[in-house]
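queue> holo job accepted (zinc ion)
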Amino acid sequence: MNSETKNCQNCKKDFTIEPEDFRFYEKIQVPPPTFCPDCRLIRRLVWRNEHSLFRSPNGEKGKSDLIISIYHPDSKLISYNREMWWGDRWDPCNYGVDYDFSRSFFEQFKELLEKVPHLALSNSKSVNSKFCQTAVEMKNSYLVNSSWGCEDSMYCNRTAQSKFIHDSYICYSTEFGYENVYCHKSSRLFFSRESESCLDSYFLYDCRNCSNCILCTNLRNKSYCIENVQYNRQEYFRKKKEFALNTRLGIEKAKIRFEQLWRDAFHKHLKLTNTVNVVGDQVKDSRNCYWVFDIEGEIENVKYANWGSKGMKDAYDVGPGCGHNSELLYEGISTGVNNNRSFFNAVVWYSNNVYYSYMLNNCQNCFGCAEMNSKQYCILNKQYTKEEYENLVPKIIEQIKNIPYIDKKGNKYSFGEFFPPELSPFAYNETVAQDYFPLDKKRAEAEGYSWREYQPGSYQTTIKGKDLPQTIAEVDDSILSEVIECEITKKPFKILEQELIFYRRLDLPLPSIHPDERHNRRLKLRNPMVLNKRMCFFGDEEVFTTYLPESKGGPKKVVCTKHYNQEIY
Ligand SMILES: [Zn+2]
Ligand SMILES: [Zn+2]
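queue> job finished
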């Protein structure tokens, strides 16, 4: 078998299917894809809403009772709260229908999604954390999304096993952290990037085992350094005062300096730890993987995956939300946690042999189902016997090939393609597609995605962000009743009591920017999930990297692993 170049039916760019890819498709009995890897990723991303929450009618009680839901009230979808959805007072099979062989499968699946009640928020085993979406085992946390095992934390995305962290993105095992991106195993670390095992420090990039350091890059096992210059303890604390890091102004100034220092630092071309034959970024303890990003570890034979937790084998086109003891997966989003043979699914956990389904837990042998728990042998939510199911599924697969769905852009969806984006219950800008491939309304609509404008609600702002006091010491409890106008987006936001306590405890100034905009700014501190070839800064070899070329704002000193290990120790 040779590699083949195909033309993506969506973006019209060429992409290559390698012999090993053909072998995988053959093994799971699906035809090769007709969308390129990037278009496949975006097509999945529009099915994951990690952080756009709304007050929507409680599907059980009616319009007067509003609950927190990932489904916008205008979507007209029915939201059930946790207790109702998981309880036995309803049966998703009551929404089941016969398969109609004269119509496209996706059309019938769309109708099912419009009818069946949806779980308002995925949040399990949590205490006092009702605003956390895609969250597990959370305690006293607020808007900490796509996270697990966090306590007393706020405004975080993709964090785990952490306590008292605010405004952080992809951080594990950290406490008392603020405005960190890819920082792990640290305590009292602030405004830092890609650092590990650091203490009492501000503005670190790629540092390990450092304490009491400010504005340092590529540093190992140091204390009392500022801009990589060693000071003694007294000098350090005297200099630290001059930075006034307890004022918004001091932080703004340090941020600008940090940006320069980051630009001048050494950057390892890919951030891989303990990997064999892996091409990807931010990946640990894995082997034989290609085009994989943000993987916590222990994955093998995986291609085109992102945001995965430990343990995944033989998978293509999965994530965000994948892994966790799963095997044989193809085209899935939020299909982590003990899945086996999971194909073309969104939000399916602890399940086996499931195709084209949405929001299933502990299900076996289901096809085209939605919002089900502990079911088997169902098609479009209708219950069948094992024999009936096994007889019907091959016929349906043939029918999907014969009657493909054509979306409004003219793209054709036959068996082997993920759900068309226009079936998604979310608008493009409500999903993580907007986080990773941001578009404006015009572009999104031109590309066939739906869009929902932000509605500011009835809040009247009472203070402008830029007029907030410079230090937390100047702030009294009356701030809790103010409505702040974001300095950048003008969106109103409030300071919550838990947040105020956090800022006071760590002597951090109030933010003048809306939490959403803070999240967007942190996202810009990560590299895009795109691999380019680039010459090592020392000119010895061409390497894959996620860093943008220098001409597009990327840093200068992107280096191969050999040179990184030589320079940084
Ligand atoms: Zn494409
Ligand atoms: Zn080199």
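queue> Residues 58 and 66 are 5 Å apart (CA to CA).
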